[in-house]
Amino acid sequence: MHARHLTTGAERGPRRRGPFPSGAAGTDGRPGSGRAVGRAATLAVAAALLASLFGPVRTLGQGNPPRPALGPSRRAVEIAVPANEEDEALLGRPVALAFDGGRLYVADALDCAVKVFSKDGRFLKSFGRKGSAPGELSFPSGVCVAGEAVAVADKFNLRIQLFDKEGRASGGFRVPFAPDRVLAPAAGRLLVTGNPTGRLAGERLLHVYDLSGRLEWEGLEARSSSDPVLDAFRNMILVCPGEEGDFYVVFRSGERVIRRFAGSGRFLGEIAVDERHAVPSVDMPLGRRTLRLSGFCWAASRDQGVFFLSAPEAVAGKDLGPGRAVSVIGSNGRLQDVIELPCAVHRFVVAGGRMFAIDDEGALRIFEVRS
Amino acid sequence: MRKLAVLVLAGLVLVTAGVTFAAAPDLNDQTDCNTNHQKCREYTLNLDSPWYKVAVLLTACDIAFGKCMLGI
């Protein structure tokens, strides 16, 4: 009997396993390493209780901004994902997706594995397991297809691991930071992002390596101030591949621009995004003051020369969370369409007119984007 | 009545925090503190949770880090 299976969106029960899953504690195997995280969770519960009592947070305006009036728009038609009966098909904490034209690769941070699906959502295989040996992973947080290899950001092993498409470990290299996302903007080149620790000066958000692990370039200095929590929001970035080795960087909060870089790291310019792309704000008590944080983008992808940006949405009138609306932004920054999805999506990738998304319950949803 | 409820809940929070603090006298190794702090932040940022919740959790990570560094 298979207790865990992946079903279509409507049938799914809760799939998320809490903010600090059991795998979170002591992942390095050293005594005490999980206790600090456990205490952090306890403190978080206490702080959340206090916060809910005094209610300092509010989103601005009345609910979510109205959708702009546009012409005939693209729409998303959902494709039913088959009920995969294998235990391995269940997604524990899916945090990144990559599509190579035929297969979808999903990095599952909780199961420390990459799960492979067909383009119709049929589970094919899983590779990787928890550990630090070759082929093993500790909190994989990013995945991309680099030619014939699948590159995985192996966060807590501080390395990028390469697998062949059958899931066999085929190399990799160490990095001096916890890698977050990985992208292959050009053949033989990997862009690796990292979240700044907030404790070191001059940390960089972008790092470009060749497949042997030689650092070619790093840049985009992390924004820093006296408030590490504020900095964490200001340094949240998303990356999308461009043409001819270029790539794009989107800051999740703050200005409504998309930055373009050459594969060599040269800054090529900014795209100012249409004012009609909804950017809700939230007042957050950070440090000793209240900060108004603009939610520019929750998730982003790029396909056939256009950007797909999902704007955050108000959650219960108090917070900003993932949204249901995806703005289609042209290369000139102009809003072309707004796609309304039947569910909020956390992460997604758009490729060949098909959107692969992770919904609120951590389940895979597939949409055909039609004009 | 509401004030009483707030006071009771605030008391519970303080007791919880006190118990948590009292249970951590042994973690004052700086490397461990840094590692744990980084993991706490990375887990939080990868939760993909609404931002206010993330801010609260990041604050908790920082409090735990400070306490770890002080060895209390």
Outline the structure in words:
The complex is a heterodimer of chains A (371) and B (72). With 371 residues, chain A is mainly beta. Chain A has two helices and 31 strands. Chain A has helices spanning 33-54, 228-234, and strands spanning 58-59, 75-79, 94-99, 103-108, 113-118, 123-127, 129-130, 136-137, 140-146, 149-154, 159-164, 169-174, 179-186, 189-194, 204-210, 215-221, 237-241, 247-251, 257-261, 267-272, 281-286, 289-294, 299-303, 306-310, 313-315, 319-321, 325-329, 335-340, 345-351, 354-359, 364-370. In chain A, the strands form nine sheets. A four-stranded antiparallel beta sheet of chain A has the order 2-31-30-29, with no helix packed on it. The relative contact order of chain A is 0.14. Chain B has one domain (2-70). At the A-B interface, helix 1, helix 2, strand 21 and strand 26 of A face helix 1, helix 2 and helix 3 of B.
Give a nutshell description of this structure.
The complex is a heterodimer of chains A (371) and B (72). With 371 residues, chain A is mainly beta.
The CATH topology of chain A, please?
A: Neuraminidase
Distance between the termini of chain B: 36 Å
Helical proportion of chain B, percent range = over 70%
Tell me the major beta sheet of chain B: none
Beta strand % of chain B: under 5%
Q: Gyration radius of chain A, to the nearest Å?
A: 20 Å
Mean pLDDT of chain B: 80
Name the shape of chain B in a single word.
Answer: flat
Radius of gyration of chain B: 15 Å
Q: Label the overall shape of chain A.
A: globular
CATH homologous superfamily title of chain A: TolB, C-terminal domain
Total strands of chain B: the figure is 0
